[in-house]
Amino acid sequence: MGDSAAESGFVSTIFVHPVQLRWGECDPAGIIFYPTYFLWFDAAAWNMFAQAGYHAKRMRAENRAMPLVAAGCEFKHPAEQEDRCEVRSRVARWGGKSFVLAHDVVRADGTLLAQGSETRVWGRYASGPGSPLKGESVSAELKALFRAK
Amino acid sequence: MGDSAAESGFVSTIFVHPVQLRWGECDPAGIIFYPTYFLWFDAAAWNMFAQAGYHAKRMRAENRAMPLVAAGCEFKHPAEQEDRCEVRSRVARWGGKSFVLAHDVVRADGTLLAQGSETRVWGRYASGPGSPLKGESVSAELKALFRAK
Amino acid sequence: MGDSAAESGFVSTIFVHPVQLRWGECDPAGIIFYPTYFLWFDAAAWNMFAQAGYHAKRMRAENRAMPLVAAGCEFKHPAEQEDRCEVRSRVARWGGKSFVLAHDVVRADGTLLAQGSETRVWGRYASGPGSPLKGESVSAELKALFRAK
Amino acid sequence: MGDSAAESGFVSTIFVHPVQLRWGECDPAGIIFYPTYFLWFDAAAWNMFAQAGYHAKRMRAENRAMPLVAAGCEFKHPAEQEDRCEVRSRVARWGGKSFVLAHDVVRADGTLLAQGSETRVWGRYASGPGSPLKGESVSAELKALFRAK
After folding, report:
1. What is the pTM of this model?
2. Which among C97, C69, C88 is positioned nearest to C19, based on CA atoms?
3. Cβ contact (<8 Å) for D28 and C30?
4. Which end of chain B has fewer surrounding CB within 10 Å, N or C?
């Protein structure tokens, strides 16, 4: 996926979202319950947009949404309670009205725990949640906010 | 709490919401992670209102909300993965613009696992989520929907 | 993925796990918060094994585990609060020491909401959670439990 | 509850656990889904013990557990997505084999959002999760770890 971004000359900023695995996010096997990774990816995605200027309040005021088309993850090594990790996120690809985010979960000692991706639509509600949602073209201005400096 | 309802002559229907404890709702101790009970209480509360005629779609269409003022639970006996339980819910007390729900979690073998309560406001948005929310008086009509037949 | 199973002559039982979307599983857009689908997939996976004879208590007693290697989902249509759905699950492929589960989420009106998969290892702890986990060969007996009759 | 601790001359350290409200922790009303507060309380409780020297690994190695007897919360003001908050936690009371934790959730601007408490047993497994759990007397040494300096 990163290839397409590379081909088009786009190099994304790497956004970092720190997390620490909680007791309640572990299962009876004593390791991370896997949907927790997707909770982290979603939080990391919102963090990317906030850092790029699209804070939650702005997203809401502008009736923006970024619903998912697909998500996936490969689990490399299990996280354990109290593990401090970073979700390192980047835009892996820009589509016409969508984009792909790539998320790496890296433990404090450098171990790669999981690699995931989210495909999202860059959408806008006619008038807020519940009203029709339409995809909007990804503008050059939007892309520029995520470009590595 | 049930006393006040009893004093006023109100006897609530007992609403039943079946649940089964999932792997991911257990913690490394191998038993239920306690916030799960509150997830069940909230689901049971919405189930009560749906059964009483206030389905989610109606609540949304009428701009209704029932935000919480307080919640609590006593944990009697731990649930284990795959345990089938019932959340047995009733209106324990009607206030002027609020109400108290009482929730008992009972395992299939009859063991009482937890007893909780939620105090909620009967509220209405001026024009949907994000707009000002005001408490509304609990009407005789509303109470009648929850009265035991 | 189903192809490999088909090639090998394996046709899986379709296991059905009913769910209903809760208020707390929806996000501020008023639709399902996507990691909820993975919570459902995990619950559906345990349900498959329970129905096939591997109940939670047996899994624990035999020190068995089925940790994930990968998971993914395509989101077709958003679920809304109170929607009744079925997770329809099958074994899409048997590997040497792993297997792939395919999960379809279908709304009561027949609409396909999401299609996901989980790749899991068939594992065993030396002596319970925390001790070393090793993959075990998927036996003919295990496969037979999931074969369509 | 704080009174009893005060009576006995015990003044607890205030432990601080920072959190930020996520998109997925909000409900269709656009505010915090209330069980999230209990997720935060549990995380804050483990953070207290970790800071006091009882890290997750030590708890596990010593077969310790701190199961809940009761939990409750009063909701003062709703948190919104992206709000940065602190969970400020202290030991409100020491019992013979149990203790009460008090948790205040305070937004970055100083607004008190919620006040909760957890009553927990100081327990120990005979030989790890699944084996019998017994409450242990709260020792003077344990209390000293939480005493304000």
Report:
1. 0.96
2. C88
3. yes
4. C
